[in-house]
Amino acid sequence: MVAAAGKLSAVVVIVLVIATISNSVSADPDMLQDVCVADLNNANVMQIPGLNTLGVSMARVDFGPGGLNPPHTHPRGTEILFVLYGELDVGFITTANVLVSKTIKQGDVFTFPKGLVHFQINKGKGPAAAIAAFDSQNPGVQAIAATLFAAIPPVSNSVLNKTFQISNQEVDAIKSKLAG
């Protein structure tokens, strides 16, 4: 158990060093809203003011069986995910609409490029947990479904009808599931 904790500590230190060394990108702060089915514990500049100007942040994500971190983006940061335990199916979609996906297990690492839509899901029968590290003190998060169907003021049904080729009733049903 001590050896496993030592390996975990070493990996976390390596991730932080790599994130610190990588290029930092400045941007004006945006309004943010985290929308996750998975349980998320952030370690960013909002929780740890000492991270201000260091250009790094982390989050622990705990997944129950079937737990999902739904499709989302980080507009201001690249993410590297390290699996603590369990097994996750992860993936991102390139700007050419190509899905890059993989099943990752304890000790595995996967990278999600800045700004690309990505997801994680626990398809296992037991819990899973991962550490996400970012090369930004505030990478931002924009959940795709909530962005489109729970925006305030709302996106027009006609825009969503045409975009997804669905009826007003279907748009309203999706909006009601994502509301509040």
Automatic annotation (TrEMBL):
<dbReference type="GO" id="GO:0009506">
    <property type="term" value="C:plasmodesma"/>
</dbReference>
<dbReference type="Pfam" id="PF00190">
    <property type="entry name" value="Cupin_1"/>
</dbReference>
<feature type="binding site">
    <location>
        <position position="72"/>
    </location>
    <ligand>
        <name>Mn(2+)</name>
    </ligand>
</feature>
<keyword id="KW-0479">Metal-binding</keyword>
<dbReference type="InterPro" id="IPR014710">
    <property type="entry name" value="RmlC-like_jellyroll"/>
</dbReference>
<dbReference type="InterPro" id="IPR001929">
    <property type="entry name" value="Germin"/>
</dbReference>
<keyword id="KW-0052">Apoplast</keyword>
<dbReference type="GO" id="GO:2000280">
    <property type="term" value="P:regulation of root development"/>
</dbReference>
<dbReference type="GO" id="GO:0048046">
    <property type="term" value="C:apoplast"/>
</dbReference>
<keyword id="KW-0964">Secreted</keyword>
<keyword id="KW-1015">Disulfide bond</keyword>
<comment type="function">
    <text>May interact with bacterial adhesins thereby protecting the reproductive tissues from microbial attack. Has no oxalate oxidase activity.</text>
</comment>
<keyword id="KW-0464">Manganese</keyword>
<feature type="binding site">
    <location>
        <position position="79"/>
    </location>
    <ligand>
        <name>oxalate</name>
    </ligand>
</feature>
<dbReference type="GO" id="GO:0010497">
    <property type="term" value="P:plasmodesmata-mediated intercellular transport"/>
</dbReference>
<comment type="subunit">
    <text>Monomer. In the absence of manganese, it forms tetrameric and pentameric forms which show superoxide dismutase activity.</text>
</comment>
<feature type="binding site">
    <location>
        <position position="74"/>
    </location>
    <ligand>
        <name>Mn(2+)</name>
    </ligand>
</feature>
<feature type="binding site">
    <location>
        <position position="118"/>
    </location>
    <ligand>
        <name>Mn(2+)</name>
    </ligand>
</feature>
<feature type="binding site">
    <location>
        <position position="79"/>
    </location>
    <ligand>
        <name>Mn(2+)</name>
    </ligand>
</feature>
<feature type="binding site">
    <location>
        <position position="74"/>
    </location>
    <ligand>
        <name>oxalate</name>
    </ligand>
</feature>
<dbReference type="GO" id="GO:0030145">
    <property type="term" value="F:manganese ion binding"/>
</dbReference>
<feature type="signal peptide">
    <location>
        <begin position="1"/>
        <end position="27"/>
    </location>
</feature>
<comment type="similarity">
    <text>Belongs to the germin family.</text>
</comment>
<dbReference type="GO" id="GO:0004784">
    <property type="term" value="F:superoxide dismutase activity"/>
</dbReference>
<keyword id="KW-0732">Signal</keyword>
<dbReference type="InterPro" id="IPR019780">
    <property type="entry name" value="Germin_Mn-BS"/>
</dbReference>
<feature type="domain" description="Cupin type-1">
    <location>
        <begin position="22"/>
        <end position="172"/>
    </location>
</feature>
<feature type="binding site">
    <location>
        <position position="69"/>
    </location>
    <ligand>
        <name>oxalate</name>
    </ligand>
</feature>
<dbReference type="InterPro" id="IPR006045">
    <property type="entry name" value="Cupin_1"/>
</dbReference>
<protein>
    <recommendedName>
        <fullName>Germin-like protein</fullName>
    </recommendedName>
</protein>
<dbReference type="InterPro" id="IPR011051">
    <property type="entry name" value="RmlC_Cupin_sf"/>
</dbReference>
